[in-house]
From TrEMBL, chains A, B:
Keywords recorded for this protein, A-Z: FAD, Flavoprotein, Oxidoreductase, Transit peptide
Keyword flag Transmembrane helix: no
Recorded family membership: Belongs to the FAD-binding oxidoreductase/transferase type 4 family.
EC numbers on record: 1.1.2.4
Enzyme kind, highest EC tier: oxidoreductase
PANTHER family: D-LACTATE DEHYDROGENASE (PTHR11748), D-LACTATE DEHYDROGENASE, MITOCHONDRIAL-RELATED (PTHR11748:SF111)
Name this polypeptide is given: D-lactate dehydrogenase (cytochrome)
PROSITE patterns registered for this protein in UniProt: FAD_PCMH (PS51387)
The FAD-binding PCMH-type domain, residue ranges: 36-213
Pfam name, any one: FAD-oxidase_C
Length: 461, 461
């Protein structure tokens, strides 16, 4: 590759928004997860779609890899430039381009974060519901098909992105989707770019679907003797059509850690945390009906709340679970697993997961978005303990294979990135080669986020 | 192409399930719409995925086109074999393969119709919600990304297909998706095949998401003085978060025709028909709140009902609108337009549509899935009147361009088929070429439903 030529051209184009300093390169070469440092050769900060297209044309002409960067909150090393080249940091492209409150659509640039967007929307009565926990950029969330606690009601990024603007590997700019609520007009390119992790194009604008802020919110929390009782409660609640906005599970180990760190006296049992959105009357009715299901399932310590303060108190254990887990083992880091199984298999999956963790001699509390069948183990590892990291990776690998056996997926929401490409053949078999054919058609030089998602030469069918 | 060789091989493979009789060929060469007769060279009735794969390998080797066929209810000539070849009639592949009530998933073959599926599901407490009106096959509905009256609540086929099995152009069989509620595992191939109209592969199995039959259903109907008041009522209802299961609009012309045909005395005004699904308490509350919105908007003749009989009476005008329209002009046929616009533009779009129809001297009552911004004009044409057909096509074309100007789409739910490929460049611009690149990657000989969706040599960029 003619990296030097590309660098000269990009420096001329971006001026001070082009950098090769070591701190900048290193800041774009590490992630929140356990992956080794992988810095790009240079970082640029575009401000317009035209700049991204110009950059892409330069890199296409010179054969230089290009990797997008949002907030760097990925847990699977998505934005690590495995083959060097240019990292495109989108944080200066963080404007709201257009808000159509009547159509509940907002056009934004990809570097805007979800919290920034919701702050801007506060006065409109609307909000963007997808909540992966981290304050990720919306371009990053789109690229990883993110989801989170509200998915059981509002869906994932797949359901909440109406349209995209994308710069392709050859610098062409395309628009996918429309402002209509639905369309049957040709291939669903919007869906194709969502979750493509920047391997098919760079997202430069998103049109997002917004939702009305609920008139009323109520939350409930309860403890169960067994995991099975908790999960059966979720299944019954879904079956009854009670429209949950969130439904989260934490296991007894999370409760135990939370009590130890915070001096609380919560029952050290599996808990469910649930939230309802609606009118005052409907959330009261939903909470009442949910309470009946809980009682039938032998749930205890049932509490519900409608004020913000009381709701936050009830959800505190969930919100602070990750930090409490880290604090419980000072100096540790977390390797967070992420599988999703058909909900009927969830109790067995969590149980087997727990056994795998115990057998490996690891500490790994479990929590999850139980309404989706998606759960995480927070494997707490000593930093720089290669043996423990190897064991944790093995547990993550075994959990993924277990999910596949059960008809599930190797990743519910964290994506493939640098961490899970080795599992793609197991999940997708011949369909993985089809992904490779699409990649080759749209990025024949393999410049966009190379080394991610699709088969490499070493994986030939 | 070596059609003769393919025919010899297919005859040997399929025996009596291979046919070249004229009635069979003609039955698979016409559609419900106005397109000219386009029979295939032969029709086969596979019973297994393996047979479809074997057929595809034969046709790939001989370069013979292959087009799928479901119930033939397409309104845009999707299944017309424009370049002849083999039509694959899926009606013998109509089994339920596996039902997982706990996971609310059902695996089915593509030739099963949505009514057959819902009949089979009746005892389970579950149902499949996508309702395009016609009793289409689920493979056909998947291939056209169908939607319908319940989309405002339950979504389109895009939202209700979890996984697919697909035979590719070279005979490989792949599986996309999983039984999990969500996944972030690589390219969304499921979404890519949905709406591809059989141009990328033949769907041989579907895993569908089911929903709980609502405990209670209530319906309401009301008349408005103006279209604007009706649409504003819909917008406000959405904004208030009242969870509508269906919301349909018919214009005053539909009401007038319905009265004339049925001897009823409904107000000859725009009407809204709405349906709520939930518990007894929540549907009563939803109906009450909706009634308040209607009163604020000056709606009249507000009626609501919860028994099946009363609900059917209220919805009669909607259910029978198409037949009443045809009956109002004996011997006519309908050309049905299908655009979808951002909901804020809907009143203007319907108004302008009405003007276009009047200016063309046509009769064309308007109705639609107003919660989605999707509406249809039923252009009533004399059979074999070429001048009237030409005018109707021009109105449909102008409506599509109007929808694009408004940020909408040329088709909300009927798809592209033989009728709308000429509008693809206008909607998708450079993205249409990307669809062509994907097609070329997966079907380099262009054998699957040729002449549909993607650019041909004549459309080169």
């Amino acid at each position: 590759m003619a990296l030097a030529a590309a660098i000269t051209a990009l420096e001329a184009l971006f001026g001070t928004r082009f950098t090769q300093t070591r701190p900048e390169r290193e800041a774009h070469g590490h992630s929140e997860a356990w992956f080794p440092l992988t810095p790009p050769d240079a970082v640029v900060y575009p401000e317009t779609t035209e700049e991204v297209a110009a950059l892409m044309k330069i890199c296409a002409a010179e054969g230089v890899p290009v990797t997008g960067w949002g907030a760097g909150t990925s847990l699977e090393g998505h934005a690590l430039p495995l083959k060097g080249g240019i990292t495109v940091d989108f944080t200066r492209m963080n404007r709201i381009v257009d808000l159509s409150a009547e159509d509940r659509l907002v056009r934004i640039q990809p570097g805007l974060t979800r919290e920034e967007l919701n702050t801007e929307l506060r006065a409109t009565g609307l909000f963007f519901p997808v909540d992966p926990g981290a304050n990720a950029t919306l371009g990053g969330m789109a690229s990883t098909r993110a989801s989170g606690t509200t998915t059981v009601r509002y869906g994932t990024m797949r359901d909440n992105v109406a349209a995209l603007e994308v710069v392709l590997a050859d610098g062409r700019v395309i628009r996918t989707g429309s402002g209509a609520a639905k369309s049957a007009s040709g291939y669903d390119l919007t869906a194709l770019f969502l979750g493509a992790e920047g391997t098919l194009g760079l997202i430069t604008e998103l049109t997002l679907r917004l939702h009305g802020q609920p008139e009323a919110i109520s939350s409930a929390v309860c403890a169960f003797d067994t995991l099975e009782a908790a999960v059966e409660t979720v299944q019954t609640t879904i079956q009854m059509g009670i429209p949950m906005a969130r439904i989260e599970f934490v296991d007894e180990e999370v409760a135990r850690i939370f009590n130890a760190i915070n001096g609380t006296h919560l029952p050290e049992k599996p808990h469910l945390m649930i939230e309802f959105h609606g009118s005052d009357a409907t959330v009261a009715e939903d909470s009442r009906r949910f309470g009946e299901v809980v009682a039938d399932m032998g749930g205890a310590d049932f509490q519900w709340a409608t004020t913000t303060e009381d709701r936050n108190r009830l959800w505190k254990m969930r919100h602070e679970a990750y930090l409490a887990c880290l604090a419980s083992r000072p100096g540790s880091m977390g390797l967070i697993t992420d599988v999703c199984v058909p909900i009927s298999r969830l109790p067995e999956a969590v149980e087997r997961g727990r056994e795998m963790i115990a057998k490996a001699g690891l500490v790994g509390p479990i929590l999850g978005h139980v309404g989706d069948g998606n759960f995480h183990a927070i494997l707490l590892l000593r930093r720089d303990d290669a043996a423990e990291l190897a064991k944790a990776k093995e547990v993550a690998h075994d959990l993924a294979h277990m999910a596949l056996e059960m008809g599930g997926t190797i990743t519910g929401e964290h994506g493939i990135g640098a961490g899970k490409r080795g599992l793609m053949a197991a999940e997708h078999d011949a369909a993985w080669q089809v992904m490779g054919q699409i990649k080759a058609a749209l990025d024949p030089q393999g410049l966009l986020n190379p080394g991610k998602i699709v088969p490499g030469p070493e994986d030939a069918a």
